[in-house]
Automatic annotation (TrEMBL):
<dbReference type="GO" id="GO:0004416">
    <property type="term" value="F:hydroxyacylglutathione hydrolase activity"/>
</dbReference>
<keyword id="KW-0479">Metal-binding</keyword>
<dbReference type="Pfam" id="PF00753">
    <property type="entry name" value="Lactamase_B"/>
</dbReference>
<dbReference type="InterPro" id="IPR001279">
    <property type="entry name" value="Metallo-B-lactamas"/>
</dbReference>
<dbReference type="InterPro" id="IPR032282">
    <property type="entry name" value="HAGH_C"/>
</dbReference>
<protein>
    <recommendedName>
        <fullName>hydroxyacylglutathione hydrolase</fullName>
        <ecNumber>3.1.2.6</ecNumber>
    </recommendedName>
</protein>
<dbReference type="GO" id="GO:0019243">
    <property type="term" value="P:methylglyoxal catabolic process to D-lactate via S-lactoyl-glutathione"/>
</dbReference>
<dbReference type="InterPro" id="IPR050110">
    <property type="entry name" value="Glyoxalase_II_hydrolase"/>
</dbReference>
<keyword id="KW-0862">Zinc</keyword>
<dbReference type="InterPro" id="IPR035680">
    <property type="entry name" value="Clx_II_MBL"/>
</dbReference>
<comment type="similarity">
    <text>Belongs to the metallo-beta-lactamase superfamily. Glyoxalase II family.</text>
</comment>
<feature type="domain" description="Metallo-beta-lactamase">
    <location>
        <begin position="85"/>
        <end position="243"/>
    </location>
</feature>
<dbReference type="GO" id="GO:0046872">
    <property type="term" value="F:metal ion binding"/>
</dbReference>
<dbReference type="InterPro" id="IPR036866">
    <property type="entry name" value="RibonucZ/Hydroxyglut_hydro"/>
</dbReference>
<dbReference type="Pfam" id="PF16123">
    <property type="entry name" value="HAGH_C"/>
</dbReference>
<dbReference type="InterPro" id="IPR017782">
    <property type="entry name" value="Hydroxyacylglutathione_Hdrlase"/>
</dbReference>
<comment type="pathway">
    <text>Secondary metabolite metabolism; methylglyoxal degradation; (R)-lactate from methylglyoxal: step 2/2.</text>
</comment>
């Protein structure tokens, strides 16, 4: 059997000079995670991959799948664009053959993606009650007989919920175990889903690429506490957030964190990526720790930009960052 590292070495020889963002991502991932190399070689080509439902209907679904799939140990994760900027995540656990759908904002695009792969939704996993995360619940439950799993603190607002989970709970998805974090802030009952064996995080609207959710039902203290539960996870954790907000988040981030060279480079790559219609999600948690201002309230440059005292608590700086973003 050929090892993943041998495949990665061949992949590096075959890749052209990495001029585009996607090709650079290919090289970076081949070096750091050779088990992803072959999948990324299939996806890291410099051609437009639109992130809206319209383009998914005009390109072949097979091609769309190639550009939306992340292969992890025992877990494949497919990105299905819905509504204007939502991402629904289809999880397939290879050991058991079970499939789960995270935050189905609408049913039709997800059913189409599942049917094209010969899959059915065994489970629906909801991070919070907002309609753009639960709008497809009942139709998909009726269509597949899916079991709906969601936050205990919000069970009265989750359509069709069958299983309620809270902070510290674990739930078995085939041969993988999912850990649950209560992460209130965006909503009072929000949860985040984490698969440690696959190093995959599904934070809903708690953590975005270069951002975090608005505080519709919670306080800055709640959201900062929630984010602080996620930051100790391994840096290689893939963050599968629920919206394509990255480019607008990047514009804000560079405005308040002007001395951050890693952020400047990331924004440049994001702008290139989005100019080609390529999705920016998932990201790595290590990237967020280095460049996401909402995870960096301790930074002296950010504090100076927002007029926060150097000795102020981190939650005070976080609140200032959130307020500045709301008014940006």
């Amino acid at each position: 059997m050929i090892s993943s590292r041998s495949l990665a070495a061949n992949a590096l020889r075959l890749c052209p000079s990495p001029q585009s963002y996607a090709q650079r991502a290919c090289f970076s991932t081949i070096r750091s995670a050779p088990h992803l190399a072959i999948r990324l070689l299939d996806t890291a080509v410099p051609r437009p991959i639109r992130s809206g439902p319209r383009t998914l209907t005009t390109m072949s679904l097979t091609a769309a799948q190639k550009h939306s799939m992340t292969e992890l140990p025992n877990l494949s994760v497919q990105r299905v664009p819905c509504l204007s900027d939502n991402y629904v995540w289809v999880l397939h656990e290879s050991g058991s053959g079970k499939t789960a759908v995270v935050d189905p904002s609408e049913a039709a695009p997800v059913i189409k993606a599942l049917d094209s792969r010969g899959l059915k939704a065994d489970y629906i996993l909801n991070t919070h009650h907002h309609f753009d995360h639960t709008g497809g619940n009942l139709e998909m439950k009726q269509h597949y007989g899916a079991t709906i799993v969601g936050p205990a603190a919000d069970e009265a607002r989750i359509p069709g919920i069958d299983i309620s989970l809270k902070d510290g709970d674990t739930w078995d998805f085939g041969q993988l175990q999912m850990r649950v974090f209560d992460t209130p802030g965006h909503t009072r009952g929000h949860i985040t889903l984490y698969f440690p064996q696959a190093e995959a995080l599904f934070p809903g609207d708690t953590l975005f690429a270069l951002g975090c959710g608005r505080l519709f039902e919670g306080t800055p203290q709640q959201m900062w506490t929630s984010l602080s539960k996620l930051t100790p996870l391994p840096g290689n954790t893939k963050v599968f957030c629920a919206h394509e907000y990255t480019q607008s988040n990047a514009k804000f981030a560079v405005a308040i964190d002007q001395g951050n060279k890693k952020l400047q480079e990331r924004k440049r790559l994001i702008d290139e990526q989005r100019s080609q219609g390529i999705a920016t999600v998932p990201s790595l948690l290590s990237e967020e720790l280095d460049t996401n201002p909402f995870l960096r309230p301790h930074d002296s440059g950010i504090r100076a930009a927002l007029g926060v005292a150097p000795d102020a608590p981190d939650v005070e700086a976080f609140a200032a960052i959130r307020k500045a973003k709301d008014n940006f």
